């Protein structure tokens, strides 16, 4: 299982009954287009924690009822109310609307229209994927792949604009 921080399934809104099942309010892209899942990551205290799904019920609306293995009581499952739920890499196909990371070959710019390089690869790491950028002088620049850093994507021109924390580029 690999954590995919860019594939947010939804957020746990409440406990459902006394059997430990929870209600996940789904992101719009997954409504009526839910992938097959055996496991998910639940973000608790800012960290992804893997959970296997023992039971799930989806009726085509914007919510999914799920029970996690080892959490067969409402008290235990109640700890996760408000937590975000992410898909794992083994969850099958991601809906087309969420295939937004086909960005290899895109030119990267930072504020001030400064060109820093071209994306050569997306490196999948547990906990944090990285963008590998090949600079004009041939050195590799690694930048965390995070929604907060991406300020714009122009697919037609194959350009991505990033706003990076000060000093991040100096680490490479």
Outline the structure in words.
This protein is an all-beta fold. The protein has 1 helix and 12 strands; from the N terminus they run E-E-E-E-E-H-E-E-E-E-E-E-E. Strands 1-2-5-4-3-6 form a 6-stranded antiparallel beta barrel. Strands 10-9-8-7-12-11 form a 6-stranded mixed sheet, with no helix packed on it. A hairpin with a 4-residue loop joins strand 11 (150-154) and strand 12 (159-162). The protein is elongated and about 60 Å long. Mean pLDDT is 82; it is low at 90-100.
Helix and strand layout, with pairings?
Blueprint: E1 3-16, E2 21-26, E3 39-44, E4 47-58, E5 63-68, H1 74-77, E6 84-88, E7 107-110, E8 114-123, E9 130-134, E10 140-144, E11 150-154, E12 159-162
Parallel strand pairs: 7-12
Antiparallel strand pairs: 1-2, 1-6, 2-5, 3-4, 3-6, 4-5, 7-8, 8-9, 9-10, 11-12
